[in-house]
Design brief:
alpha+beta
Length: 319
Amino acid sequence: MTGRPGPEHHWKTMEFERRVPRASVHKAADAEVLLTDAQRLGTGRFAVAARWDRDHYLAHHGGPAADPVMLVETTRQTAIHLSHRFLDIPYGMPFVLSEASVDLTEALPPVGPEHLTVGLDVVCHPPAEGARRLRLELEADVLLRHRVIGRTRLRWQPMEPSRYTMLRHRGREPRTSPLPEPPRIPLSPATVGQRTERDVLIAADPMRANAWWLRLDLDHPVLFDHESDHVPGMALVEAFRQAGRVAAADHRPGAGGVTLLTVEFTAFGELDAPVAITAEPAGLGVFTLRAHQGERELAHATVRCGAAEPVRTLLGAAC
């Protein structure tokens, strides 16, 4: 997107106080809506405004900078909102997010006492000519205080409900009762950069180093804002962030916040079976993480803690 006209003049007319309708981003509660406005700037190009509040669960409270998970969720909501408002995707169609990228040239600033306003200068690319299925892609410059600090990219696929149901249940084994919970060691909220025990998504495995078990509260007001029959993609994204932070602190005391987060999803996770998360060092402050449910890998990720660099990151999610 380098070289196209800057969007600065558009932000003067953007709304940053009133949220977009929650149905347009597939949320049940107004408080979980991050987007405040969207305008068409030209063929396939849009300006999107968002507002991050300090008390939002994904804002995090354990360091001097916001983690990129909030930006991942903002981009996810952008794809859904643009699909319905501008791309003629009807309501009621499930969405599968296949991949996204976050490329930051500097760390995100912390969310202040009131809020932080964020802009996305978005270009949407149509499906490839002759494609059998509707796969969409967007790229966006990330703007803070009218200054570009990075880029995001996301691919997603709107799906007919019947096809989504077939995909969702493919290879799924029926289970009459939940599997037994493995032994696990609780972690403090401060260890993972959160404020309350409810928001801690991982517990240490007492038998293995750099290994954790996913903790899911099915009544969590953010991660289960609306009913879901599988492990939410954003729950795994946040669990990877927390595990990467713990792993980095164990190897480098005083390591900074997460500045690189990459995730690729490979399967739906069931709510009635344990999910194991492991981490392996992959460089200075960099870790490769994997989430497994039994023998099946649900997702793998790369997390880096430390100073932000102009490095491309990738996230894929089934949602």
